[in-house]
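The instructor's notes for this session suggest beginning with a concrete chain rather than abstract definitions. Hand out the sequence below and ask the class to guess, before any prediction is shown, which regions might be ordered.
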Amino acid sequence: MADMISRFEAMLEAGQDSPMLRLSLANALVAAGRATDAIPHLERALELDSGYSAAWKLLGKTLLDTGEPARALDTCERGIAVAREKGDIQAAKEMEVFARRARKRIEPPAGES
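After discussion, reveal the predicted structure:
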Protein backbone atom coordinates (compact mmCIF):
# COMPACT_ATOMS: atom_id res chain seq x y z
CA MET A 1 0.00 0.00 0.00
CA ALA A 2 2.88 2.37 0.80
CA ASP A 3 4.13 1.79 -2.74
CA MET A 4 0.81 2.93 -4.20
CA ILE A 5 0.71 5.96 -1.93
CA SER A 6 4.23 6.92 -3.01
CA ARG A 7 3.33 6.50 -6.67
CA PHE A 8 0.20 8.62 -6.35
CA GLU A 9 2.09 11.31 -4.42
CA ALA A 10 4.81 11.34 -7.09
CA MET A 11 2.15 11.82 -9.77
CA LEU A 12 0.74 14.79 -7.83
CA GLU A 13 4.19 16.31 -7.43
CA ALA A 14 4.70 15.90 -11.19
CA GLY A 15 1.63 18.07 -11.78
CA GLN A 16 -0.83 15.33 -12.72
CA ASP A 17 -3.49 16.55 -10.31
CA SER A 18 -7.01 15.29 -11.01
CA PRO A 19 -10.10 14.30 -9.03
CA MET A 20 -9.52 10.63 -9.86
CA LEU A 21 -5.90 10.75 -8.70
CA ARG A 22 -6.94 12.46 -5.46
CA LEU A 23 -9.64 9.82 -4.88
CA SER A 24 -7.17 7.00 -5.61
CA LEU A 25 -4.64 8.46 -3.18
CA ALA A 26 -7.33 8.93 -0.53
CA ASN A 27 -8.50 5.32 -0.95
CA ALA A 28 -4.92 4.10 -0.53
CA LEU A 29 -4.43 6.27 2.56
CA VAL A 30 -7.66 5.00 4.14
CA ALA A 31 -6.65 1.40 3.39
CA ALA A 32 -3.27 2.06 5.03
CA GLY A 33 -4.95 3.30 8.22
CA ARG A 34 -4.25 6.95 7.46
CA ALA A 35 -7.84 8.16 7.10
CA THR A 36 -7.15 11.63 8.50
CA ASP A 37 -4.49 12.16 5.81
CA ALA A 38 -7.06 11.27 3.14
CA ILE A 39 -9.47 14.08 4.01
CA PRO A 40 -7.58 16.99 2.36
CA HIS A 41 -7.19 14.95 -0.84
CA LEU A 42 -10.93 14.26 -0.96
CA GLU A 43 -11.70 17.91 -0.33
CA ARG A 44 -9.34 18.84 -3.18
CA ALA A 45 -10.99 16.28 -5.48
CA LEU A 46 -14.31 18.01 -4.82
CA GLU A 47 -12.80 21.44 -5.45
CA LEU A 48 -11.71 20.12 -8.84
CA ASP A 49 -15.03 18.36 -9.56
CA SER A 50 -17.96 19.12 -7.27
CA GLY A 51 -20.04 16.50 -9.08
CA TYR A 52 -17.77 13.56 -8.19
CA SER A 53 -20.14 11.28 -6.26
CA ALA A 54 -17.43 8.79 -5.27
CA ALA A 55 -15.39 11.55 -3.61
CA TRP A 56 -18.44 12.84 -1.71
CA LYS A 57 -19.17 9.29 -0.53
CA LEU A 58 -15.63 8.53 0.64
CA LEU A 59 -15.29 11.93 2.31
CA GLY A 60 -18.55 11.44 4.22
CA LYS A 61 -17.53 7.96 5.36
CA THR A 62 -14.01 9.07 6.28
CA LEU A 63 -15.26 12.02 8.31
CA LEU A 64 -17.66 9.70 10.13
CA ASP A 65 -14.90 7.16 10.78
CA THR A 66 -12.52 9.84 12.09
CA GLY A 67 -15.00 11.19 14.64
CA GLU A 68 -16.44 14.18 12.80
CA PRO A 69 -20.15 13.30 12.57
CA ALA A 70 -21.38 16.88 12.03
CA ARG A 71 -19.04 17.40 9.07
CA ALA A 72 -19.88 13.91 7.84
CA LEU A 73 -23.60 14.68 7.91
CA ASP A 74 -23.16 17.94 6.00
CA THR A 75 -20.93 16.21 3.45
CA CYS A 76 -23.34 13.33 2.98
CA GLU A 77 -26.33 15.63 2.56
CA ARG A 78 -24.51 17.61 -0.12
CA GLY A 79 -23.21 14.42 -1.73
CA ILE A 80 -26.67 12.83 -1.80
CA ALA A 81 -28.02 15.83 -3.72
CA VAL A 82 -25.13 15.61 -6.22
CA ALA A 83 -25.50 11.86 -6.65
CA ARG A 84 -29.28 12.05 -7.17
CA GLU A 85 -28.86 14.82 -9.71
CA LYS A 86 -26.42 12.63 -11.65
CA GLY A 87 -28.58 9.52 -11.31
CA ASP A 88 -25.96 7.80 -9.15
CA ILE A 89 -28.55 6.04 -7.00
CA GLN A 90 -26.18 3.56 -5.33
CA ALA A 91 -23.84 6.30 -4.09
CA ALA A 92 -26.84 8.26 -2.79
CA LYS A 93 -28.12 5.21 -0.89
CA GLU A 94 -24.73 4.57 0.69
CA MET A 95 -24.43 8.21 1.75
CA GLU A 96 -27.95 8.02 3.26
CA VAL A 97 -26.67 5.20 5.49
CA PHE A 98 -23.63 7.27 6.53
CA ALA A 99 -25.91 10.28 7.17
CA ARG A 100 -28.17 8.21 9.45
CA ARG A 101 -25.13 7.01 11.40
CA ALA A 102 -23.86 10.58 11.69
CA ARG A 103 -27.24 11.81 12.98
CA LYS A 104 -27.23 9.08 15.65
CA ARG A 105 -23.80 10.23 16.84
CA ILE A 106 -24.86 13.88 16.91
CA GLU A 107 -28.35 13.61 18.45
CA PRO A 108 -28.85 12.10 21.88
CA PRO A 109 -31.34 9.19 22.00
CA ALA A 110 -34.98 10.13 22.68
CA GLY A 111 -35.63 10.78 26.33
CA GLU A 112 -32.07 11.91 27.05
CA SER A 113 -30.74 15.43 27.12
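Then share the key points. The two ends are 44 Å apart (CA to CA). The chain has six helices and no strands.
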